[in-house]
Design brief:
With 735 residues, the chain is an alpha+beta fold. Helix content is 53%, strand content 17%. α3 (65-100) runs antiparallel to α4, α6 (141-161) packs parallel to α12 (324-350) and α13 (355-369) runs antiparallel to α26 (660-694).
Length: 735
């Protein structure tokens, strides 16, 4: 499919099939979502219907359709690139010959030689598409391209072979090979830009599927393990998951203990401890220990499979806003053809002595001047300029639809972790670590711990010690003895005969150690801010306290204030607990927040806002945000997050600076404004140029537009559109 008319043709053919209830064809993803009665029509019949309308349909088999489509898109993009390059190589000398040596006797023959491959080989797709549309009694942009270039080419061939036809009538024969070839080249450029944007649409699904391993270790009845394909896993099978492996299916732990990275589900950076009875989800990663698990949900029933399905549905659903160019093209194309024919007929009836000649020239001139080159370039050139401007400001934009919608955003939903906060735990405040003995002892113990928060402590002690010039180095292993990890509480260890405790308040209470008053004030303020407090004590007393939290980005409060100033409602969602969510929301000035939400809850909230009439933007960075990102009207991914979030989102922020979000909205508004300016000038050019080409001024002042000038005017319209788009480089997006 190449344009909205193609979408309409496919939809019309499928919808007319008996048994089909609903159909939505998506141009960006080259997919069709069809609801149909399987008793009245089957897959093969639907495929035959699509093929009869001039296209083809791939039926999903074992989930491989996504891969098939991606391969086709890559091949098509490569073919477009080759055709565009070859077309440019021939068009450049053709323009030189046509402009500099136009009066030379050999010029028409050389131009014919150079133009023929461009028009008939590299541009044949336009003629084929136009023929298919004609057979189905419809027209699209390809129809106008093929008619204008085809008529200009054939007219030029006639003038090259039979120049005497015109000289006998007192007219100089002109050739328009240059106009035909340049038009084809410009349109090929637009098609290449479009295909390049579409080529990666299926990569998000592939990466989501890649989270799940292809093979698993299953325990047999005799206690041995065997490696099997994931499709062979059944409910109640016992699987063995080794350190570093991904969980293959949803289930629960039978025995073993380990920390799992569940960021793809919860979005939270801290790995979760799993032991007997703990729930496991496909796609999460086992970090440390070996687990035996029972398979409970397999195949399409897993949470990961549901996320994949939701993203597929959202990406493949029909866009609510069709591109303005394609909408108008449905009317514009037949109108131009009608005007061209009408102008010829009027000349033939009322043209006098040279009626036939002038009528033919008028028809060619109308078709040449009305070539949709400017229309075809209006959107991609503005998008390219907008993308360049965005890249300078850390913003990547994938399509024009997001740009069109973003200016109407009324509500924005922010993920907490990695979007408002940094996305990883850090030490934010300490007490008692100015004593080198205490600091060294803590570093020695935490260096041996596998707990994720221990990494934050080690990182802090290593960096702060170096900055302060202190000697903070982990004690050698043989000096740390009796190391004991106490699940859910902390660590007990001995260093050179002294017993140390690292952990939470419960660990201290169990060993009879009270927290002194001078620490309690800090503990209360840390708790109010939802920081995690780690205590460090010897056998008798508390020696140090550490507050750990996911730091809020410095730009978050300012960015949220700017969004609210622009009358955008700001919401926050997080998989974290209520207290942490409330503390973060209070610090950055967000009144509306939701805590302890799963991926499906985030997506449901986005949908509920849309049902209330809001135009919703979703900003996230994790795999767990991909469902909500796919459903949002405008999806924005933080560039330091997961590849999947960036692939699903239609905008990606390279920077972690949250101020980039309001800048992205400003860029969208400016770019859409320039697209509309381009379209306005392109249509004004046609509104003025077409009547003049038809000869409307001849009865008034005897003026007739030469097709050569029409070709130049067509080229100028394209240049003016490109020049206007380049002005985007100097637009100020604010700080």
């Amino acid at each position: 499919m190449t344009c909205a008319s193609c979408v309409a043709s496919v939809e019309k053919a499928i919808r007319a099939t008996e048994g089909v209830e609903e159909v939505a064809v998506n141009l960006a993803t080259n997919t069709a979502q069809i609801s149909f009665n399987g008793d009245r029509v089957n897959d093969n019949e639907l495929k035959a219907v699509v093929q009869a309308s001039g296209y083809d349909l791939l039926i999903p088999e074992d989930g491989k359709t996504t891969e098939d489509v991606e391969v086709l898109q890559i091949e098509r993009l490569k073919a477009h690139k080759q055709k565009l390059f070859a077309s440019i190589v021939l068009s450049v000398p053709l323009m030189i010959v046509g402009m500099v040596y136009m009066h030379a006797s050999w010029s028409p023959w050389v131009q014919w030689l150079l133009a023929t491959p461009v028009v008939l080989i590299f541009g044949r797709q336009f003629f084929i598409s136009a023929w298919i549309q004609a057979k189905h009694r419809s027209a699209n942009m390809d129809t106008l391209v093929s008619l204008s270039t085809g008529v200009a080419y054939l007219f030029s061939v006639f003038n090259t072979l039979l120049p005497s036809f015109w000289t006998a009538r007192g007219l100089e024969p002109h050739v328009y090979f240059e106009a035909a070839a340049v038009v084809i080249t410009f349109i090929l450029l637009g098609k290449f830009l479009e295909e390049r944007a579409k080529a990666g649409t299926s990569s998000a699904i592939k990466k989501l599927m890649g989270l799940r391993p292809n093979t698993v270790l299953r325990e047999t009845e005799n206690g041995r393990t065997e490696q099997i394909e994931i499709d062979q896993v059944n409910v109640d099978d016992t699987l063995v998951v080794r350190p570093g492996e991904s969980i293959a299916v949803d289930g629960s732990v039978i025995d073993g203990e380990s920390y799992l990275d569940e960021s793809m589900i919860s979005g939270e950076p801290v790995p979760v401890l799993k032991n007997a009875g703990g729930a496991l989800f496909a796609g999460t990663i086992n970090q440390k220990g070996t687990l035996r698990m029972r398979a409970e949900k397999v195949g399409p029933a897993t949470l990961l499979a549901q996320i994949v399905r939701t993203v597929q549905d959202a990406q493949g659903s029909k866009a609510p806003v069709q591109k303005l160019v394609d909408k108008i093209a449905a009317v514009f194309v037949p109108v131009v053809i009608g005007i061209a024919v009408l102008s010829a007929v009027v000349w033939w009836i009322y043209g006098g002595e040279h009626a036939f000649t002038q009528g033919l020239l008028a028809m060619v001139t109308v078709l040449v001047i009305a070539c949709p080159c400017a229309l075809g370039l209006a959107t991609p050139t503005a998008i390219m300029a907008g993308m360049g401007k965005g890249a300078e400001n850390g913003i990547l934009i994938k399509d024009a639809e997001s740009l069109e919608r973003a200016r109407n955003i009324t509500a924005i939903v922010l993920d907490k972790t990695g979007t408002i906060t940094q996305g990883h735990p850090d030490v934010v405040e300490v007490i008692g670590l100015d004593d080198a003995v205490v600091a060294n002892a803590l570093l020695a113990i935490e260096s041996r711990s596998e707990h994720p928060l221990a990494e934050a402590v080690v990182r802090h002690l290593s960096s702060s010690g170096a900055q302060a010039g202190a000697t903070v180095e982990p004690t050698t292993d043989n000096q740390v003895s009796a190391f004991q990890s106490i699940t859910g509480k902390g660590i007990k260890a001995t260093i050179n005969g002294t017993t140390w405790l690292v952990g939470n308040r419960r660990l201290l209470e169990e060993h009879g150690i009270t927290i002194p008053n001078e620490y309690r004030t800090n503990e209360r303020s840390w708790s109010d801010a939802a920081h995690t407090v780690i205590w460090f004590a010897d056998e008798k007393q508390v020696r140090a306290a550490i507050a750990i939290a996911d730091r809020i980005k410095p730009s978050a409060k300012e960015a949220i204030a700017r969004l609210k100033k622009e009358n955008v409602k700001v919401y926050m969602q997080t998989g974290d607990n209520q207290r942490t969510a409330q503390a973060v929301a209070r610090q950055v000035g967000i009144e509306h927040f939701r805590s302890e939400v799963l991926p499906k809850d985030k997506a449901a909230f986005v949908k509920s806002l849309q049902e209330r009439g809001e135009v919703v933007a979703m900003v996230g960075d994790g795999i767990n945000d991909s469902e909500a990102l796919a459903l949002a009207d405008v999806s924005i991914a933080m560039g330091k997050g997961s590849d999947i979030a960036m692939d699903v989102a239609r905008m990606t922020l390279i920077s972690t600076d949250l101020n980039t979000v309001p800048r992205a909205i400003t860029l969208s508004r400016k770019t859409v404004s320039f697209i509309r300016q381009n379209l306005f000038w392109a249509f004004i050019y046609n509104v003025i140029g077409i009547p003049i080409a038809a000869g409307i001024l001849y009865p008034i002042n005897g003026y007739l537009l030469n097709p050569m000038i029409a070709g130049a005017a067509m080229a100028f319209s394209s240049v003016s559109v490109v020049s206007n788009s380049l002005r985007l480089k100097w637009v100020n997006l604010g700080q």
